[in-house]
């Protein structure tokens, strides 16, 4: 209880007394308010992206009560807050099918908080401890043909523990997250073939970095609370010094490892702040007399200076660990190929109600074929809004009333045009503000909405090149087998017709990509090889399925081999160039970098620039522009002009009188790149 968990946030009940700062119940903020989207990746049987801690946040302690002594104008402790309830356990299940019977259910709710109690001689009960948050649940079904359970709030019991309303004030408790505490997914197809083996248990670096940051924050909260209590009377007592020695030794023991991680991530500013604050704490402790670690004597201290030095050290450490985790998360984004994104945050659109797929709001987009994920950012979806792909319902969005959250569904995309539809079969209304479709990995939909189009093209080109090589190898093997006896038999010709038709169908799209990137020699060789194959086939009667056609095996193999070889060379060239360019099409302003401005940048630098692509030199067409631009001086005022015109587009910033403003973000940018 009282510990920061993976899921949920908790608050203890307030104590009683006239000084709010003394009586307010504690608050413990968990890592996620509801179960977040998960990026599950199958690397040869090693499932990466499953959180290693799904426990609910422990309930926060209730506030103390105080009695005001008028004589000496001080406060006397009159009651202590109750302890918070324990967080619920996390549950992760990977199975070849999951089903719940008629009476079956799963429950991982938090436990109830303790009531506050009074303290003699003037007992006034403190606030009740907050109820513990429920744990998170991850259900992974191995095999898309295997059964998935139908989940509802009656099947998945995930509730906060109760916070008693008497004798003290109640805190947060006794409400349920239900299906908002679970993620139900299919195990994705492995990126590489693999043999069965036991115990695939390698945790991904992204999750490790995020967990390290979360655990550090939880440790810091507990340590700072203990250190504040120790300094409450302005004296370090001999019995308290043992705990101080242990806390300080722990900070020093982890310093080298954290700084090594910072060096690897290139986080010089955050590392310098962390090292400097730790050195300042060491200097402060060294100046105390008698020595802070002398366990045979008491040491007087200033509570303000004591708390300030410890808090600065812990805050700088957690800031650095959060930055390391953020970079690890951004680096992990490179695995998901973005196929489609639609962004109308935060307002969004209302979905059509009392209708079906045909009556839903439609979106069409081009995509490569394969399995991927569909993410929807929906608000107020407790009525069960629907999302569909290519004339079929994909899933149901069902969450808490008024809550905005991401919903993720595994899908299969077709090559070429795909269609999405959003609707509700009931009359319950709601809205959606974002749609993200990925190929391969799931990705982080929030970050993918801000990813550059060039990065998405590069990922798609890389996947296309790899798939093309596989297709070419298989096709050439089949064609070589067909030609083994130097005859095309009627039963073999349908496969040859299919292979040739597929080559012609994709030719226009590949040549358009080559033109976009200015690739001429490889494109000419590719087009020439297809023409040579077509000329060769035209005189053989190869597509007459009623007769046997005699062929020269060597010539046959050489013509097909030439097409597939030149096709692969062109796709590899497209992949190479697409991966080194950034179009900056989401960046505006007169100082916008030129296309290819990131050519030669490292992967880390590209990730950092990509995450800022929507916030670096934005236009002012949205009323939310003051979230990025801040007034720092001047007698005037900043406001928004909503009217559109040919000069200002959909809106503009209105600056009355004299205004000096600057951008809130400090964007790391090297003009040489």
Short description:
The protein is α+β, with helices and mostly antiparallel strands and about 675 residues long. It has helices at about 20-25, 205-230, 240-265, 270-285, 305-330, 445-450, 455-480, 495-515, 520-540, 555-580, 605-610; strands at about 10, 25-30, 40-45, 45-50, 65-70, 75-80, 90-95, 105, 115-120, 135-140, 155, 180-185, 235, 300, 335-345, 350, 360-365, 370-380, 385-390, 390-395, 405-415, 415-425, 430-440, 485-490, 550, 630-635, 635-640, 650-655, 660-665.
Describe this structure in words.
With 673 residues, the chain is of the alpha+beta class. It is built from 11 helices and 29 strands. The strands form 11 sheets. Strands 15, 16, 18, 21 and 23 form a 5-stranded antiparallel beta sheet that branches. A 4-stranded antiparallel beta sheet has the order 17-22-19-20, with no helix packed on it. A hairpin with a 4-residue loop joins strand 5 and strand 6 (74-80). Helix 3 (238-265) runs antiparallel to helix 4, helix 4 runs antiparallel to helix 5 and helix 7 runs antiparallel to helix 10 (553-578). The protein starts with 9 loop residues before the first strand and ends in a 10-residue tail after the last strand. The model is unreliable at 196-204, 582-599, 610-617, 645-649 and 666-673 (pLDDT under 50).
